[in-house]
Each structure stands twice: as C-alpha cells, then as structure tokens.
DNA sequence: TATTGTTATACTCTATAACTATA
DNA sequence: TATAGTTATAGAGTATAACAATA
C-alpha cells in the first residue's frame, strides 16, 4: 500500500465538502441539515417519542426541539400527544413533508452523481460498497 | 445504483469514528489531533510564518497558538524569530518532534489497517484510490 | 501605514441542569 | 417517584476584534 494521507484526514476533508455541497441544495427546500435528517428518520417509520427520534439520529433530545418546531410550523410533520400517554408526542411526516423530503433527496442525489462522476467508472461501485461497509461498522471501531 | 444512505451521512459517520479511533493512539504520544496535524504539516517542509502554517492546515491563526506553545514546551518544534524579519517565526520540527510524529503515524496506520481489514480485499485499493481522488478535489465541489 | 503574532471578546454548537406536565 | 418534553444555563470549539511589536 503506497504512501497516502491518513484515512481520517481524507474522510474529514471529503465529509466537510459534501456537507457544504448539501447546504445550498437543502436551502432550496427551506431545510437545514438537521431538519433534513429528521425528515429522513421519520420517513422510515413514525416514532412515538422525541427522545426515540433524537436517539435514532444521534442527537441530544434538547437539540431537535427547535427543529421540530420549525417543521411543524411549516406543516411538514405531525406532532400530537399520544392519547394513551399524553407525555409522549407521536411524530410522523405529513404528505407535504414526504414531498419535501423526496424533492430534497433527489437534489442531493443529483449533486452526489456529479461528485461520483469524478471517479474512474470502475472505482465507483467498490467505493460505495466500502463506504457503506465502514460507515455501518463505524460506531464500534476497530 | 441501488438505494443507499446519502454520501455525506456515510462519510460523516465514518469520519467521526476514525477521529475517535485516532484519539487514544495520539494520546499515547501525548498529542492532540491539532498537535498531530501541525507536526505533519511541519514535517513536510519548515514554514516561515504561523499564518502560513494555519493556512496550510485550514485553521485560524489564533487557534494554533496554544498548540504551538505546547509543542515548543515539549521540545517537539523550533519556533524562532526570523532574523531577517523579526515579526515572523521560523517553524520546524526538532529531531524529537520528527520521532514523535513518526511513532504516532505508525500507530495510526496500524489502527487503519485493522479498519481496512474489514473490507473485501478487492475493494481496498479502489476505495483508497477513490477517497484520495475525492478528498483532493474536495475544496471545490460542484 | 502594513504585517505578524498575541490576547480578549463574541459567537455557534452542543450538552447538562432545572422545570413543567403527565403518569 | 418516574418519565417526556421544554427551557435555562454552562461548556467546548471556533472566529472576530483589538492590541503590541516590528517593518
């Protein structure tokens, strides 16, 4: 294996650039990064508590409150007390929330395709496969 | 291309895990992440000003001062006023600084090998090549 | 006056602690 | 008493502004 920068140095540089490239795409849909992450998480399956949502996206429960306020104010999510336990808030996407999420995701995928186009064609699949593998293992390295 | 998480989501997860995995390795050598980055940058070539160093590692010039204080205090770097322009500080690694840098880098490489071992053998080279390519392009993504 | 390095200050992000309401 | 959500507070990390030394 020939000389190269440290892995973390390369992934940090790449990651910051990708996040920066996502920002204007998300802004077209009025979304911040956290708002987008919340829409993605709720899209998979509605959740019964905000704490569960925070947990699932690796955020503190206090950090997503303003995000939920914004999304609810725009009508992108529903957030209603659980009739069975009125301490909890049932969270789910509205149809409009689903539409915005899908549009934002399409925009991001288009940006990503332009990035991946810079790779040699034969490296793309292995790169994505390896990235998937390592990011899935990531919480518990080595 | 089949469904997958967003690129940025995967690189962020991976990057944080790698940085976290580096931390204890660097700590064995008494280094923080920034101190290690400074040692690497100075190892390539001595620099004439702290501003140039900060620029080269993408940090604010005010942020590296405490780092340089620490490295100088441990005798890992030399930091002397330029006789030709005493406003500037000539920065370079001491032999001990070079030794610590090399030892830390070896430790990090060993950790990275354990991480890369989780990949299919045939994906490793393409992954590293793609990561190099994209991180080199990163500052100016489309 | 302009530049290098430094210190002081402010801002952003995040986490912790304290509070309200339900149970 | 315990839990979900919220608000208030405090702590990192970082950037900006002000300052001292040198040119």
Describe this structure in words.
The structure is a homodimer of 142-residue chains. Chain A is mainly alpha-helical. Helices cover 63% and strands 11% of the residues of chain A. The first copy, chain A, has a single domain (7-117), classed as Winged helix-like DNA-binding domain superfamily/Winged helix DNA-binding domain (Arc Repressor Mutant, subunit A, Orthogonal Bundle), CATH 1.10.10. In chain A, a hairpin with a 2-residue loop joins strand 1 and strand 2 (85-93). In chain A, helix 1 packs across helix 5 and helix 2 (33-44) packs across helix 5. Chain A is globular and about 60 Å long. At the A-B interface, helix 1, helix 5 and helix 6 of A face helix 1, helix 5 and helix 6 of B. Chain A binds a DNA duplex (23 and 23 nucleotides) through strand 2. Chains A, B: InterPro entries: HTH_MarR-typ, MarR/SlyA-like, WH-like_DNA-bd_sf, WH_DNA-bd_sf.
**Which class of secondary structure composition applies to the elements of chain A?**
mainly alpha
Using the coordinates shown, work out and report the CATH topology of chain A: Arc Repressor Mutant, subunit A
Say what oligomer this is: homodimer
- Show the largest interface: A-B, 50 and 50 residues
Rg over CA atoms of chain A: 18 Å
Task: Count up the helices of chain A.
Answer: 6
Which CATH-level-2 architecture of chain A?
Answer: Orthogonal Bundle
- Give the helix proportion of chain A (percent range): 55-70%
> Beta-strand percentage of chain A?
5-15%
Distance between the termini of chain A: 19 Å
